[in-house]
Amino acid sequence: MKTRYLYRNKHGVYCLRFELQSKPKNTYRQLLISLRTKEPRIALQHYSTVMPEVYRVLCSYSDSLRLNVSEAPNVFEVKRTIRELVARIVETEKDPSISKLMSQVRYRKLDNYLDATFESLDLTESQLMALKRKLSISESRERALVTSLTSHSTTTSPASIESHPIGELVDDYFNFKRKSWGTRTATQALSNLVRFAEIINFEYPSAQIDGKLIQHYVNVMTKLPKNAGKRRKEVTTTNSELVTKWWLDLSVSHSETVLGAGGLEKHFSDIRMFIKWLHERHYVSLDFSKHLEIAKPKGAKFVEKRAMYDTAHISKIFSSYIYGNTLRNREAPKSYHFWAPLIALHTGMRISEIASLEVQDVCYEDGVLVFSVNDEWKSDELKKSQFSKSKKTKDSLRNIPVADALLNAGLLEFIGKRKSGLLFDDLNLSDTKGLGNTISKWYNEAFVKYAGIPKRNDKNTPLAFHSFRHTFTSLLDKTTLEGQPLRRNESFYVTGHRDDSVRTQTYNHGSYSPSLIKSYIDAIDFGFEFSQLSYEKFQTRKVER
């Protein structure tokens, strides 16, 4: 039950506490009305009984302030009226089950309506009267509600709980959410949901799920090894009880490294949404999603933010063996080795956006060559594949002007006469780990090692391929032409971020200038001369003897 107006003073006595607007000085005065008990059960009983009457008194007082009624009661009269109501209730013996009479849903609505009444001082008179009619509850309806509720057992839930095997509900939830997920997201979510169902038992009835069961799931998860998913593939039994026992045994029998806070959060985030979905559809009695929160040490974060590259980092990256004259021993050069870091630095594109570029995505808009970041495959072969080109958000769909540094490095010559297909046709896309997994693995594990690029900056913040995006965004915001920075809406547009300003959301209707954006991109000072870079030279490198 929501009891935001229930207060316990320093002596342990429960009271009703409100803040009412005082008419003369337009200030607020606090009201404390004693419920004359130190017992939580009795306090909730009195609170449940008295709130409908108190609620009507407060609404009437709020209306009188809004309508400026000359004979409106003052704060002290309201306090006296409420005190009399409370005294009448408190002095009357009630059945102990009365605290269960008002459903949680009903009181949540009452409290929300009450808050809305106090906050809606700018409503017109007609709107206020309509709200008052909506909030009014007649005496007869109130008595009917009390009579109806008292006829039920005090342990009966106000909402009808429909129980189903948890495995069946996992299927229903996945089918419900599948259309809004990409392939990778759906695969990961299904894996996490199935593990949840297996740990608590596929046949477990949803109506019996409680906090203790959720805590059991958490306890098992926190003790599982990192490779638990691979081990599960070796289990062939379909008996739900045996599978549940297998997970429990694994959590207590191994001596390997367990999942860290970040890994647990990836699992729990999917299960939290599933639990909320179950509660909204009355498959479980309460929302237990809060039981899946992970306690973090003060100042700790699950995912460390990436740092931007400084001038020294950029110089070292683009002076490395990839962009030099020598082919590293046993190196297997790929086109994306040369282009991916260069495109990321000059566009701020995400790694998956670069990996999913097609030849047709390099096109002209208003006479300016752009990279079209979209969510639909153009090539027939890719349309029929299992790969998804979906983007992070709808704001990710954009056209980014191609910088002169990319054109001078030979981008158009690299495309040549090709009409379709992936821009990097020697790139192996990954469906299960994201389209950019191959580029990420090459750059973050191999390239930085052989090129001597640090994985953390001087402040111990991680550096990775995504740091190119941080670098581009930061430097674009600092770039000015004739003393003026790029307009806010166009800066947000080119980086694929959402601009929540009222002006942009209301009045901007896609009015982006590719030529203006390109002039700012070309003006970014990275502290490095890119004119020496050439894709033709990259192709002709030889092993040094």
Automatic annotation (TrEMBL):
It comes from the Bacteria. This is Tyr recombinase domain-containing protein. PANTHER family: PHAGE INTEGRASE-RELATED, PROPHAGE INTEGRASE INTD-RELATED. Pfam families: Phage_integrase. SUPFAM superfamilies: DNA breaking-rejoining enzymes. Transmembrane segments: none annotated. Residues 313-522 form the Tyr recombinase domain. Keywords: DNA integration, DNA recombination. InterPro entries: DNA_brk_join_enz, Integrase-like_cat_sf, Integrase_catalytic, Tyrosine_recombinase_XerCD.
